[in-house]
Design a protein that fits this description.
- The protein is α+β, with helices and mostly antiparallel strands.
- The chain has two domains: 2-79, Alpha-Beta Plaits (2-Layer Sandwich); 89-223, 2-Layer Sandwich (Alpha-Beta Plaits).
- It is 25% helix and 38% strand.
- A hairpin with a 6-residue loop joins strand 2 (45-50) and strand 3 (57-62).
- The longest helix is centred in the middle third of the chain and has 20 residues, at 135-154.
- The model has no long low-confidence stretch (mean pLDDT 92).
Amino acid sequence: MYLSKIEFSPAYPEEMVNILAKGIFSEHQMMWNLFEENKSIKRDFLYRRDDSQSLPFYYLLSAREPVQNDVRFHIQTQAYNPHLKKGDELYFSLRANAVKTITEKNNAKKIRRRDIVEYKVDEYKKTSATERPASSVIRYEAGKEWLEQQGKRCGFEIRHLMVENHQYYQFKKPGDRNQRQFTSLDFLGQIKIIEPEKFIRQVLFNGLGRAKAYGCGLFLVRRI
């Protein structure tokens, strides 16, 4: 695996403006274009946009090494082969499309997916308004429940957690009349590793949640 940092070149500001103005599907296409074209290969990467600096940049985790000859971008790539052991504690950051899968009562084969925050809001609507907490509390409760479930499945425990930035996205693919939409939550905090091999395989290499083709799922970690 390879972990890369993708930055827009200051020499091509119009490229950055063009990509960002077109929205999330344009970013998705940009990531595909960083690799040599091979129509037989399915998506084998995760990415995450970061807006913490003066200009946005991207973290990219991929099975293939991105090409280095595109002058529009500065690309820094290194091999990614994490070594962890049981009991290790890590800082983490995750942007996830976190959903709850609901099976229809009268049709077990029919399922629908619901944003976890919206689902939690609906649960609180069954209580009186005076018992309903602030939206930030609802967001935290929904996020914590979801991430704890992922941890039980994937070999880690939460030590500290913040849940922020409940975002809503809409886009259309070129030539497609259907409007696509999804939500995301930002998680950050500390975790403890319980099953290292499972965590590396299922979380670090495969990501968490859905909408992984559109900037969600990449689980970034660093040692405490």
